[in-house]
Write a structure and sequence with these properties.
It holds the Pfam family HIT. InterPro entries: HINT, Histidine_triad_HIT, HIT-like, HIT-like_sf. GO terms for molecular function: catalytic activity. It comes from Prosthecomicrobium pneumaticum. The chain is an alpha+beta fold. The chain has one domain: 2-Layer Sandwich (HIT family, subunit A). Helices cover 31% and strands 17% of the residues. It has 3 helices and 5 strands. A 5-stranded antiparallel beta sheet has the order 1-2-3-5-4. A hairpin with a 3-residue loop joins strand 1 and strand 2. The longest helix has 21 residues. The model has no long low-confidence stretch (mean pLDDT 97). Bound molecules: guanosine-5'-monophosphate. The site of guanosine-5'-monophosphate has 13 residues, from strand 2. Guanosine-5'-monophosphate binds next to strand 2.
Length: 144
């Protein structure tokens, strides 16, 4: 079945336009990163290209080529910020695969030995905790 067209009313498009708030940790000409409001672990980030696409399947390869180095940078910062043992990088394509927001994004989740991931799109985190975690990531980015 053909996927629906990109809809610029999706929540990440609205965050990118500044219509709704987010805890931003990074921005360049092509990419923004902010805290996931329903983190699967402390420090869960979303790395979001500014260019419009639903997901990996309809994205411009040039956008994808620019995206992975930013994911790497944020994965390194998140690992340092949370003294993590590892980092899980996830990306879902269409509802059947678990995607819930239809603007391409990459999940970056710091991980500690023996600590399982919280459920995807589970509980909302407190804004003050998200703000504190965002500050940790910004500090780690500055120290890279
Ligand atoms: P997906 O299932 O599409 O890969 O993931 C979407 C992610 O966006 C989920 O992890 C969910 O917690 C997160 N999310 C949903 N709504 C918002 C929001 O309004 N702001 C932020 N920062 N994250 C959101």
């Amino acid at each position: 079945m053909t996927a629906p067209a990109y809809d610029d009313g999706n929540i990440f498009a609205r965050i990118l336009r500044g219509e709704i708030p987010s805890h931003r940790v990074y921005e360049d000409e092509a990419t923004v990163a902010f805290m996931d409001v329903m983190p699967q672990g402390p420090g869960h980030l979303l790395v979001v290209p500014k260019a419009a696409s639903r997901n990996l399947l309809d994205a411009d390869p040039a956008v994808l080529a620019g995206l992975l180095p930013v994911v790497q940078k944020l994965a390194r910062a998140a690992k340092a910020a949370f003294a993590a043992d590892g980092v899980t990088v996830l990306q879902f394509n269409e509802g059947a695969a678990g995607q819930t927001v239809f603007h391409l994004h990459i999940h970056v989740i710091p991980r500690h030995e023996g600590v399982p991931l919280v459920a995807h799109s589970g509980a909302m985190e407190k804004p003050e905790v998200l703000a504190e975690n965002a500050a940790k990531v910004r500090a780690a980015l500055a120290a890279l």
